[in-house]
Amino acid sequence: MLETMANAVLPLCRGGRSHLPAGAIGERADSACTVLFAGKPVKSCTVFAAQADEQEIRTIEGVADHGKLHPLQEGFKEEHGLQCGFCTPGMILAAQALLERNPHPTEQEIRWGISGNLCRCTGYQNIVKAVQYAAGKMA
Prior knowledge:
Elements: H1 2-8, E1 34-37, E2 40-43, E3 57-58, H2 71-78, H3 88-101, H4 107-113, H5 125-138
Antiparallel strand pairs: 1-2, 1-3
């Protein structure tokens, strides 16, 4: 019983996201642990397992459809929206949540929609272009 209760208060990133670098877990400064929690992008290291009970959770692994790239993944590839890849899961999931709410966002809305994710490699321009690419394909 005690072990079950302890697991219920562990952050989501401790279960199923153990492949993240040690410094990534619990810092909230990056987007490597981003999931869609009830349709909203959150850092899994800020959500307790008990809060996730009976909630819909989508991870980057669930974005592709049976091996076929999602338009966002395709956009990141075609528009060179990634470099090291560390922020890519968070960027894609934040953009997916944005496009589900607003299928035709402006550049400013895209920049606001991904603003919770830190990318240390790019100037964000190609990430914005990748989201615009996906919005066009999904329209």
